Amino acid sequence: MSKNRKCCFSWIGLIMRTPHTFIFCVLAVTAGCASSPPYLGREPLKDHLMNSNHMVHAVDHIGFAVSSLEEAIRFWTIGLGFTLERQSEMGGSFILQVTGTADPSVRTAIVKGPDGSRVELLEYSQGDRHGITPPTASAIGSAHLALRVQDIYAVLERIEQAGWKARGKPQAIPAGPRKGTLVVYVTGPDHITLELMQANE
Known about the structure:
Layout (H helix, E strand, L loop, with lengths): L2 H15 L4 H11 L29 E4 L3 H11 L3 E9 L1 H7 L5 E8 L5 E7 L19 E5 L3 H9 L4 E2 L4 E2 L9 E6 L5 E6 L3
Parallel strand pairs: 1-4, 5-9
Antiparallel strand pairs: 2-3, 3-4, 6-8, 7-8, 8-9
Helix pairs in contact: 1-2
């Protein structure tokens, strides 16, 4: 039996003897077991680091790896109304040092939304060898981009022609500051997930 396991059992014995300390002891058991997440027990950020020079001041862009840059550009521009801002290609050690991905080259495109938000599309030359995101929005590490639209049903009809499908049916948010807003997730051929949102006006 491991040392951590012995610690866990001793805490459990304490819980049985003093029920009023149940919550505190359960937390101690979690922190002491060998299967505890690695981030438990880390020290909090120091106050002197919490100044403007150490904080994010803006979101610059969001990026998606795609299987076909041309098809992705068509979808975002023709399907969603973004504008193509620029395209480029990079290679060599730059990619490895920045992304940690050993790929010879990557072709990129920046598309800009009506509000100025930018989306980066990246087609890696060996992307098909690196795997694909799980086709579910609940997988750990999965992400989505939420887009505000005027007519959610019209957008759904339009993007379905490009191979994108809704996960379900638009639903109104039942409560809170966005009560009445229609929302639905849609997923494309590369398992990229978007959320469409139509405000209740």
